[in-house]
């Protein structure tokens, strides 16, 4: 099989195409012939060595979609040929992957492989963040990094929940066609206040958005595309103590497998119904994955990058 491996941390050039024997599914596992691979900022961070404890060599890639090709002992042969989506943690940059049979999500007929990975993790993070923030009808919602994968899904889902959505993006894309009521430009700064801020960016500007929370407002950090915030980023909570504002964080790692599966079924159903639009910015061959990483680092991507093995 073809796969991409990283033998040293660094820039996009450390991504190497390699050949290996296809993996064999063990008991309770399935082998998936991969049709589409989601490429995200988490892959960039893994490549850079940002996660403590990540051992070399490794194959990046946290989400794939494809067809079940083989099954291990204890798994029904009826699954062979099923179109599925899976979050794999790592190892997704490959033509074949092996995962636990209980971790795959059946894809609706109308949701293609590219659409699945363009929805996938990004929509799960966005939905979980909005649920954590308890968004209700008519609340003012600001989405940072709204052109990115998580942000674009958060804009659409917040609108579907009845939120009055402001999209913060410096990329110049038309985000109103995805449900944003208003767009904040390159400075990302606004004097408006919001009931909810969904933030996959964090970074040095985070304190500004804490200040923009209305009384009883909730800010959920669900990513760090802009790097880590300053150590005193939460000082605004103390200076504005009487406003009862809240900061929380959201990682999919905190959700159970069953919770993620139920959420995935829901977002794929929304995509099938046309209520959630997966956006594929560009497609890459597996041997050009470094170009995809460079595009992500340039910050001009609208939605998701997809690779085909």
Secondary structure layout:
Blueprint: E1 2-6, E2 15-19, E3 29-39, H1 41-48, E4 63-71, E5 83-87, E6 96-100, E7 104-106, H2 113-133, E8 140-143, H3 149-160, E9 164-168, E10 182-184, E11 194-199, H4 206-211, E12 213-221, H5 235-239, E13 246-249, H6 257-272, E14 280-285, H7 289-298, E15 304-308
Parallel strand pairs: 8-9, 8-11, 9-10, 11-12, 12-13, 14-15
Antiparallel strand pairs: 1-2, 3-4, 3-6, 3-15, 4-5, 5-7
Helix pairs in contact: 2-3, 2-6
- Helices, by number, come to 7
Pattern of helices and strands: EEEHEEEEHEHEEEHEHEHEHE
Level of helix content?
25-40%
Proportion of strand residues: 25-35%
Number-wise, the strands total 15
Please state the overall shape, judged from the principal axes of the Cα atoms: globular
What is the SS-derived class? alpha/beta
First-to-last CA distance: 9 Å
- Runs with pLDDT <50, length 5+? none
Mean pLDDT across all amino acids: 93
Rg from alpha-carbon coordinates: 20 Å
Largest sheet: 7 strands, mixed
Q: Your description of this structure?
A:
There is one protein chain. With 309 residues, this protein is of the alpha/beta class. Helices cover 25% and strands 28% of the residues. It is built from seven helices and 15 strands. The chain has helices spanning 41-48, 113-133, 149-160, 206-211, 235-239, 257-272, 289-298; strands at residues 2-6, 15-19, 29-39, 63-71, 83-87, 96-100, 104-106, 140-143, 164-168, 182-184, 194-199, 213-221, 246-249, 280-285, 304-308. The strands form three sheets. Strands 3, 4, 5, 6, 7, 14 and 15 form a seven-stranded mixed sheet that branches. The chain has a six-stranded parallel sheet with strand order 10-9-8-11-12-13. Helix 3 (149-160) links the parallel strand 8 (140-143) and strand 9. Helix 2 (113-133) packs across helix 3 (149-160). The longest helix has 21 residues, at 113-133. It is globular and about 60 Å long. It starts with a strand and ends with a strand. The mean pLDDT is 93.
